[in-house]
Write a structure and sequence with these properties.
The protein is mainly alpha-helical. It has one domain. It contains 5 helices and 3 strands, in the order βααααββα. A 3-stranded antiparallel beta sheet has the order 1-3-2. Strand 2 and strand 3 form a beta hairpin. The chain is globular.
């Protein structure tokens, strides 16, 4: 994925990241996304992610292997790309149910992010992260606004 503006005439082909998300981010707590969406993935219960810095365990990997690739890729992109952007910008609900940014403002900002972070190329929609560099001041402002962000991680 491009994180910096690409040259107009690159020497080598540049990688493209397809836009795979089939649904918009839901503004819930980032960490509990699988708890909210496991049924949509065809799972009977929410997979338990490892706590700490652990890698996916083999049983968890087998659970994910059972999900059709297109559905899994779409959900992972929604969660780990758009959900993480929303988390950095304090658009998500905190785990205690409170919000730093109102839901209406979060929806407006997220709609703008979907436009800014996607592009059309050869009849395909692609992701781009070039705009993320322009958001650094906003990230800093939102961290200050959030104050103690510990409720996000407990």
């Amino acid at each position: 994925m491009d994180h910096l503006p690409l040259p107009q005439d690159p020497t080598f082909p540049t990688p493209e990241t397809p836009y795979l998300s089939s649904e918009d981010w839901d503004f819930g707590p980032f960490r509990t996304y699988l708890d909210r969406k496991y049924g949509d993935l065809g799972l009977f219960e929410a997979p338990q992610l490892p706590s700490g810095n652990g890698l996916l365990t083999l049983p968890l990997q087998r659970i994910f292997d059972a999900i059709p690739a297109a559905k899994l890729q779409s959900s992972v992109q929604t969660w780990l790309y758009f959900g993480l952007l929303a988390e950095f910008l304090s658009l998500n609900e905190l785990e205690d149910g409170s919000r730093v940014i109102s839901l209406d403002q979060a929806r407006d900002e997220m709609a703008a992010l979907y436009r800014e972070f996607s592009t059309q190329s050869d009849k395909r929609r692609l992701l781009t992260s070039v705009s993320v560099l322009t958001k650094s001041d906003l990230f800093t402002e939102r961290v200050r606004l959030a104050g103690d962000i510990a409720p996000r991680f407990h």
